[in-house]
Amino acid sequence: MMNYPMEHSSPPPEGQGGDPAPPAVHAEDLTVVRGPRTVLRGLGFTVPRGRITGLLGPSGCGKSTLMRAIVGTQAKVTGTLDVLGRPAGHPALRTRIGYVTQAPSVFDDLTVRQNLDYFAEILDPGRAASDHRHDDVTRVIADVDLTAHADALAGNLSGGQRSRVSLAVALLGAPELLVLDEPTVGLDPVLRRDLWTLFHSIAADRGATLLVSSHVMDEAERCHRLLLMREGEVLADDTPDALRTRTGSETVEEAFLHLVDEAKDKAAARTKETTR
Ligand SMILES: Nc1ncnc2c1ncn2[C@@H]1O[C@H](COP(=O)(O)OP(=O)(O)OP(=O)(O)O)[C@@H](O)[C@H]1O
């Protein structure tokens, strides 16, 4: 596995008046109801700026729902959820957040460059911005390593290439917060490694915050911080090192299993207490 700089030394970004900028995401007692089910239950956590936070947990634990709440597209959200210092869903956040869903959202009948030109025009309209848009589009195509395919129709690309077009769309306009829902699913190991290298350079060079979900535990080792989720709850909010140390585990996967057992034991003890 590659080694990544786990801490970078630049000072935290400052807000107006020299105050430290608020965290990228802050949640307290965050609850989300979908249909008849409460899928997120009283979550509390903080995502720091300029870091890569991994959102990990088994399929169905609520990762996508949490991401949707953060980007402001989820209904029936209660509790506190602040994003870049504003309530989630605030219109001022629209251009400050890049979001990539699990399903690549690209037009198959347009080329890679035409897809990006289209989204760049929406973000930064007008003739005056045309040169700037062109440079931005060329930069993000290079960032996701699709320069050689810039003139290929999106519909003729592989699944991994199409998801990288979606990622390139999210990189347009250099957002402060990137929310990526399982961006490496279905990619081969080389592409997965390359994408993680890209995530690290986006965080280090631009000071952007990345929230990246995965259900593959080995990807946890590539993150600065982790939010481990299970059944709509946050089991841990810590660095990979601290999690391994605290649980006496060799890997984050082992630490996760340890925390699951601990949570089950606690729940069993509570049930015993109430039925006494
Ligand atoms: N429209 C809905 N109505 C009711 N329950 C839903 C709805 N959509 C999702 N759920 C439930 O909410 C829970 C969380 O779903 P979510 O998609 O957030 O999980 P996930 O961790 O992202 O899973 P995956 O890794 O498989 O994408 C799941 O148990 C799912 O069954």
Model description:
- With 276 residues, the protein is an alpha/beta fold.
- Helices cover 36% and strands 22% of the residues.
- It has 7 helices and 10 strands.
- Strands 6-7-8-3-9-10 form a 6-stranded mixed sheet, sandwiched between helices. It has a 4-stranded antiparallel sheet with strand order 2-1-4-5, with helices on one face.
- Strand 1 and strand 2 form a beta hairpin.
- Helix 2 (112-123) packs across helix 3 (130-143) and helix 3 (130-143) crosses helix 4.
- Mean pLDDT is 88; it is low at 1-16.
- The site of adenosine-5'-triphosphate has 12 residues, from strand 2 and helix 1.
Quickly list its features.
276 residues, alpha/beta, six-stranded mixed beta sheet, four-stranded antiparallel beta sheet, 7 helices, 10 strands, disordered N terminus, binds adenosine-5'-triphosphate, nucleotide-binding
How many H/I helical runs? 7
Q: What are the bound molecules?
A: adenosine-5'-triphosphate
Order of helices and strands: EEEHEEEHHHEHEEEHH
* Portion in strands: 15-25%
Q: Biggest β-sheet: count, sense, barrel?
A: 6 strands, mixed
Shape: globular
* Overall pLDDT confidence: 88
Protein name: ABC transporter ATP-binding protein
Keywords: ATP-binding, Nucleotide-binding
Secondary-structure map:
Layout: E1 25-34, E2 37-47, E3 52-56, H1 63-71, E4 77-83, E5 86-87, E6 97-100, H2 112-123, H3 130-143, H4 159-171, E7 177-180, H5 189-206, E8 209-214, E9 225-230, E10 233-238, H6 240-247, H7 252-275
Parallel strand pairs: 3-8, 3-9, 6-7, 7-8
Antiparallel strand pairs: 1-2, 1-4, 4-5, 9-10
Helix pairs in contact: 2-3, 3-4, 6-7
The structure holds adenosine-5'-triphosphate.
Keywords: ATP-binding, Nucleotide-binding
Protein name: ABC transporter ATP-binding protein
